[in-house]
TrEMBL record:
<keyword id="KW-0732">Signal</keyword>
<feature type="domain" description="Pectinesterase catalytic">
    <location>
        <begin position="130"/>
        <end position="269"/>
    </location>
</feature>
<dbReference type="InterPro" id="IPR012334">
    <property type="entry name" value="Pectin_lyas_fold"/>
</dbReference>
<dbReference type="InterPro" id="IPR011050">
    <property type="entry name" value="Pectin_lyase_fold/virulence"/>
</dbReference>
<dbReference type="GO" id="GO:0030599">
    <property type="term" value="F:pectinesterase activity"/>
</dbReference>
<dbReference type="InterPro" id="IPR000070">
    <property type="entry name" value="Pectinesterase_cat"/>
</dbReference>
<protein>
    <recommendedName>
        <fullName>pectinesterase</fullName>
        <ecNumber>3.1.1.11</ecNumber>
    </recommendedName>
</protein>
<dbReference type="Pfam" id="PF01095">
    <property type="entry name" value="Pectinesterase"/>
</dbReference>
<comment type="pathway">
    <text>Glycan metabolism; pectin degradation; 2-dehydro-3-deoxy-D-gluconate from pectin: step 1/5.</text>
</comment>
<dbReference type="GO" id="GO:0042545">
    <property type="term" value="P:cell wall modification"/>
</dbReference>
<keyword id="KW-0063">Aspartyl esterase</keyword>
<dbReference type="GO" id="GO:0045490">
    <property type="term" value="P:pectin catabolic process"/>
</dbReference>
<feature type="signal peptide">
    <location>
        <begin position="1"/>
        <end position="16"/>
    </location>
</feature>
<keyword id="KW-0378">Hydrolase</keyword>
<comment type="similarity">
    <text>Belongs to the pectinesterase family.</text>
</comment>
Amino acid sequence: MLLSLRLLWHIASATGSLHPSSLRKCQSSITHCPDNTTIASATNPIGQTSHPTDSSRNAVTITWAAANHDNTGQSLDNVYTSVLVVSPTFEASLTGSGPSGSAVPEDTPFGNRDFRVYHVDFRNLWSEFSDGPAHALSFSRANGGFYYCGFYSYQDTVYIGKLANAYFFHSVLAGQTDFIYGFGTAWIQSSALQLRGCGGGITAWKGSNTTFENRYGVYIVDSQVRAANASLAARINGACALGRPWNSQHRSIFARSFEDGSIDPAGTGDVTTVMDAKAFAPYREPAGVFQGPEGRFGDVSWIDWETVRA
């Protein structure tokens, strides 16, 4: 699904299960939303809840099974692997390759300015181990919040593309290799990073050169980083790197978060910096890192603060 309008997508969990035929209805409801700045809402057919629930027990799961190569070995762009794609255009959603990725045409508009999902799991079922990029989420040139959601894959689970601002709250992000990566900005608040193995790093940010100051990167705050289960924890003890820089603009900050014994004591090796309060001050809250397309800081009105503060 490629979304170019300002869409409020509210899919809430409830008892029961989502029949595969209903997935087409979700897409159909999105397709029929007006292509303008009108706020639209698509609610799942099995009901909704107005109170927080355990994101590890969501009743709604959307699945896809794809990696960036087909059965013949032919390579594809990572976007084709995604369970959910949010982007104003197809070209803007392309990951590309190398430290700067795919070039986005200069006349590309900014897309969704207030995209939201509640209580939904997105699972890429391509493999049960790292076998090439396999997105659960591709999110580019948009503002969006994910509340009590789950994102599951093994490699490149969550991609935050250029100019994107993504806020995750009480969510699960699971993977093995570079499973949170991109060019934009992600703030992961009070969530669980679930290690399904070790490879590359947990984060693999590329960053971007801009004519203005930017704070593109991934910020993991008040969260937990743990092995997916006890038997895996014993096998990967001390083996997982916090990050793997893809260029000199890489920025990944772990703040006030618990890390179990799976994490390499060196963090990200010789590029790790332990920040004091003064150094961390510019990054201490979402308003200090989320930026508009022209670089202006401070607009976090699209975050559902009522849910966050509940």
